[in-house]
Amino acid sequence: MNALLVYDIHQAWAWFVIVANALAGIWSLVAHRWPVVRSRALWWFTVAAQATMFVQVVLGIVMLNRYKLVAPQFHMFYGFVGLIAITLLYSYRNQLRHKVYLLYGFGGLFVMGLGIRAMLVSG
Fold first, then answer.
1. For the whole prediction, is pTM greater than 0.70?
2. What does residue 96 show for φ and ψ, rounded to 5 degrees?
């Protein structure tokens, strides 16, 4: 793969990260309000949405290390904060099990927001 292809994939995947985490967050907030919406599929979708952030960061690391591309200021910060946020969500799930849908709802929207910020600083 060449640098331009990886860059294009990284840009396109960013939208997937943002939309997937937004949908997972909204679904979780709806599940908090209406228990009938709760299902195992919500958790599988949330895991998949959060995994998209890990893929995005790996693509960014490949661009930096293999192709020596330079990231805009704070762009990498938002990506790594996204990974930290996902890790914190997972680590607090048992302590907040009575509010787990709120935790993952607002957490998904937070990760979405970090993705948007990362795109905005990229210009």
1. yes
2. -110, 35
CB contact at 8 A, 85 and 107: yes
User: Which of the 8 DSSP states describes residue 96?
Assistant: T
Q: Backbone phi, then psi, for 74, in 5-degree steps?
A: 75, -10
Go through the chain and tell me how many residues it has: 123
- AA letter at 61: I
- The answer to whether 19 and 75 are in contact (CB under 8 A) is no
Using one digit for the tens of pLDDT, what is the confidence trace for 15-52?
999 999 999 999 999 999 999 999 999 999 999 999 99
Give me 52's structure tokens. Answer: 């998209």
Query: Do 42 and 27 meet the contact criterion of CB atoms below 8 Å apart?
Result: yes
Residue among 56, 57, 67 at smallest CA distance from 13: 56
Domain that holds residue 24: 3-122
Number of domains observed in the structure of the chain: 1
